[in-house]
Amino acid sequence: MVRVYQMTDSVFLAGLVLSFMSFASIAASFCISPVLRNLGFKKVLAGANLLRAVFTILMAFSISHHEQVFFWITLLFVFCFSFAGAFFQPARFALLPIIVPKEQYVKANGVISLSNQLFLTAGWGLGGLLTYAVPFELVVGAAICLFVLSGASLNVLHINEKTTDGTAEKASVKSIWKDLMMIPIVRDITLMDMLEALAGSVWSSAILLAFTAAVLHETEVWWGMFNASYFIGAIVGSVIAIRFSAFFERNMGYVIIFCSLVMAALTLLFSFSPIPFLCALACAAMGPFYQVRDICQETMLQEVIPKQKRIGIMAAKNAILTPWSGVTYSIMGLVADAAGAKTAFIAAAALYIMAFFIALAQTRLLHYKQESQA
């Protein structure tokens, strides 16, 4: 995206990179199940990262040419890169319940979430710094090496292929989308995710920067502190989920509902507080509740979705949420431009409250209990 913007000086053309990534995720959702059924988890997980390394090389080569035709070739490689990457999350989601005992789902998801947050925190900051300070070719070379290392690491993961038999379903695409809409807990969590993705987009760098400057009348220093405090809170939330996994396993429904309510309250606190330090505390407090809620939701989905439908349903869910996440930034950006950044945060709090009432109305989610493992 940085390279395209530097070459074209066009926000629209740089934004096409995200659009092509979203299109690829939707297209991949229709073939994830048969590919996993035919190749198996290990080959798909390792192969997805190795393919991403290959397409990164091709993207780097094509973007180094300034002719217009190479720009569209680059977008084609972006599509292929994202298409390969779309296999990773559904496969990981379906694989974890196979290699981890049921009573450790929350702890395992917490460990994965913790590692993700640590590397996201370091990755975004380090990536931005490297993009600014280091030649483009070295940044791309580092990314290629990391994809290869990830693929090689996954290839040595020991998986009993007999255990995975029947986990990649043979159901039709139509049946998978029907299941996504008909299983109450899956449907409601998907709807809540859509509302909370729209609410969460208010924390994007642009709107947060506008709030810091226009409402708090502070500099970019506090803007950076707000971002950092949230990520620190998210890491703390993953640690809490690991430490108190037994409690969360027994009360997943209540935890999800309570976290939605608290996030609404903290967003309102942030939007009305005139003191930057209190805003930073609200950001830090958001992290644990957001992270614990996500971990409980993922664990609940792993339990309620039949094992032979996990891959397909998660692929369909991602096909909805991936492009929707891209749209949410535009929606909240328009709200912030039209009514101000403070109004955007108040609207986000209202969306969190809507998610809270959806969860409260779903009695199966409210009183959900983890079934004992056979």
TrEMBL record:
It is a multi-pass membrane protein. InterPro entries: MFS (IPR011701), MFS_trans_sf (IPR036259). Keywords: Cell membrane, Membrane, Transmembrane, Transmembrane helix. Signal peptide: none annotated. Its main location: membrane. The chain crosses the membrane at residues 12-32, 44-63, 69-88, 109-132, 138-157, 197-216, 222-244, 251-269, 344-361. It comes from the Bacteria. GO terms for molecular function: transmembrane transporter activity. One of its GO terms (cellular component) is plasma membrane. It is found in: Cell membrane. PANTHER family: INTEGRAL MEMBRANE EFFLUX PROTEIN-RELATED (PTHR23513), MAJOR FACILITATOR SUPERFAMILY (MFS) PROFILE DOMAIN-CONTAINING PROTEIN (PTHR23513:SF19). This is Membrane protein, putative. It comes from Bacillus spizizenii (strain DSM 15029 / JCM 12233 / NBRC 101239 / NRRL B-23049 / TU-B-10).
